[in-house]
Amino acid sequence: MSDLIVAFGLVLVIEGLLWALSPELGRQLLAVASATPEASLRKAGWVAVAIGALVVWMVRG
Q1: Which tens digit of pLDDT belongs to each residue from 3-59?
Q2: What is the per-residue pLDDT for 18?
Q3: Angle at 37 between CA 34 and CA 42, to 5 degrees
Q4: pTM to 2 decimal places
Q5: 3 state DSSP class of 14
Q6: All residues at 6 or more sequence positions from 36 whose CB lies less than 8 Å from its CB, including other chains
Q7: How far is the C-alpha of 50 from the C-alpha of 32, rounded, in Å?
Q8: What DSSP assignment string belongs to 15-51?
Q9: What Å distances lie between residue 47 and 18, 20, 21, CA to CA?
Q10: Rounded to an integer, what distance in angstroms lies between the CA atom of residue 58 and that of residue 55?
Q11: Are 7 and 52 in contact (CB under 8 A)?
């Protein structure tokens, strides 16, 4: 469970850096995401979950 909390914290750090360093890039990414079909976003989300779980499993292995 602690790995999940740490991973969530790192996601917030990365997202915060995106907005702090380049707000315009963040706006562009949001525009692209809003124009992307829901099914594609859902698939991308599941792929990200699988990759993230694999990385944590390999590191903590």
Answers
A1: 788 888 998 999 899 899 999 988 998 999 999 999 999 999 999 989 988 988 888
A2: 85
A3: 95
A4: 0.66
A5: helix
A6: none
A7: 23
A8: HHHHHHH-HHHHHHHHHHHHHS-HHHHHHHHHHHHHH
A9: 21, 26, 27
A10: 5
A11: yes
